[in-house]
Amino acid sequence: MLSRVGYKNKRSILYSLRHFFHSPCPASSSAPNLSLQRSDNIFWWNSAITSSLNNGDVANAWQLFEQMPRRNQVTWNCMLSGLVKNRRTSDAQRIFDLMPRKNVISRTMLLTAYAKSGLIEEARQLFDRIPERNVVCWNAMVSGYIHNGMLEKAREVFDGMPVKNNVSWSIMITAYLKNKLVNEAKVLFSQAEIRSTSICNALLSGYDELGRIRDAEDLFRQMAQRDVVSWNTMITCYSRAGKMELALNVFDEMPEKDIVSWTALMQGYLRNRNIEDAWRIFKAMPNRDVMTWNTMMAGFVQNGMLESALKLFADMPQRDIVSWNTILQGYVQQDDMASAKRWFEQMPERSETSWNTLISGYRDNEALVLFCNMVREGFRPDQGSFSVVISVCASLVALGWGRMLHLCVTRAGYQHDALVMSSLISMYSRCGLINDSALVFECITKRDTITWNSMIATYAYHGFATEAFSLFDKMIQNGFNPDHATFLTLLLACAHKGMVNEGCQYFVSMQKDWNLIPKPEHYSCMVDLLGRSGLVIQAHEFTKKIPVQLQTTAWETLLSSCRYYGNLELGKVAAEKVLDSQPADGGMHTLISNMYAAKGMWKNAESVRMLMKDTGLKKETGCSWIEVKGKVCSFVSNDKSDPLIQNICQELDNLTFIMES
Fold first, then answer.
1. Tens digits of per-residue pLDDT, 550-574?
2. Phi/psi class of residue 628: alpha, beta or left (left: φ > 0; alpha: ψ in -120 to 50)?
3. How far is residue 337's CA from residue 358's CA, in Å, rounded to a whole number?
4. Which burial class, exposed, middle or buried, applies to 435 when counting CB atoms under 10 A from its CB (0-12, 13-18, 19+)?
5. d(Cα 9, Cα 15) in Å, to the nearest integer?
6. How far is the C-alpha of 379 from the C-alpha of 57, rounded, in Å?
7. Repeat PPR: residue ranges (predicted)?
8. Cα 10 from Cα 356, distance rounded (Å)
9. pLDDT digits (tens, 9 = 90+) for 179-222
10. Cβ(203)–Cβ(188) under 8 Å?
């Protein structure tokens, strides 16, 4: 219940969140006692302000700033820079306006704030008004356009630069690679006035991110000078591709190794689920820092070895917030929310990541309660926070909450963030508001594959297959490569509309044209497509050709199709396969029993039910949610615990009568 966190209704929550995002200089309970710490040393004041802003405590920074006996240019720039980092664009503008002397540094900081908030026109206008621009200012304008997905504009500014440095070339080359424009990146690299190691490393890192091993190898061989970053990048490149033998060769050939080199190799083994070799590297390391310990611990967690992670945590000579968050993630990953909550409460400090991790473990009203608590304790929700809680609203179909969070997203300056906006697209889609999803999609200036997938999925889930196909074509035309999720939504669209030929074409295309190996869900979707179209025999033949280790969910899907079309013979085959792989799945046993009952085979149905009873199997109870006046209520089948159950049943009877008549 939302009243548990002191909120009476959704309006008061909205007011609190709005106040949180728009208070330019609120008082803070965490502010130090200035009467005890007052000093005339301006360096002390500037350091205290910088520390507060680095910790996200904007309120304390404001209080310190206003209490200062005197200020210098460093003070103003510290304040402006910190507000920019904390995405307080309006506050940054306020400080800039109050500054007695403005220089190229302060103007560049405000330009960056505008660009990060999606106010790219304002950023450009400010840039044009700067009388003497240095290379940092030019780089900031290029980065601003890149941040807002405007590569052509970024290139125009880049080409107009009177002087370029290593950062300039690296920014532009990296931007092309992040947008998968490899040829453009290569051409620009060839035009670089100097082939410094840092510029080569930028291209090398881009090849690594894109998995272009051949290009990375060629560049690495051609480099006149390599530094430790170059070698470490090649280790990561090989390990991403699963080529750990080559990664080890690079590691052994390195003239000098640093702690990052050891950690990169260890992380490579972890990425490829080779825990033993990762542990061997960890123990052989001459020096370890907290990041190394955290990496090994995260490897244990990701591979479901929470006990080993806890032992490592206990042995750590030094821990940081990441260490605590890693164990928290382990509990959430195991769905042990009671232990996760206890761990969270005993943490010496918490970050936005801590809150986001705990919230992500809940899929009910508790997630919304935690989000409110997070805000009340002074934590500023970031992209992860909003993405997680909006996803919860989607699963609960809590439109009221979703709209409120949409408003908060805009006020917090994340209205151009692809991750957050993708969550909003999905939320409106789950609530059945396709037009709202489309409006959000159109507002995103910097789209990524996830954004496109979210909108394609919206059309697919609501039966608008033609629109999904059309948007997929636009995605390709705009230079985005589809991934596994893209093709899964396309196959779902085909399944919902019975478009067998189109579905088969997409299934072939993902392998032939995009080199994507189908996952279990793709195979299951193809079985569903054939089954829904009445082609149960073809669905059976298709299932038999699936690699054995990926067949389980496909047999489950085939079983559902057999039940729907009354094909008992194939249903028995599918049932045997399912029960062989999942003997403890009560839901599957229930489905098989129902299939027998539908054909009048009561003895068979009863024998399955008796087997469930003897082995203690139960079908997991289904649960539904509904939002009523800002509060999310849950209920299960045959739930009669509500004090107004008689009134509810009477109203349902009335509605049923009206619908039938």
1. 888 888 888 888 878 878 778 778 8
2. beta
3. 8
4. exposed
5. 10
6. 9
7. 72-106, 134-168, 196-226, 227-261, 289-323, 448-482
8. 21
9. 888 889 999 999 987 788 999 999 999 998 888 899 999 999 99
10. no
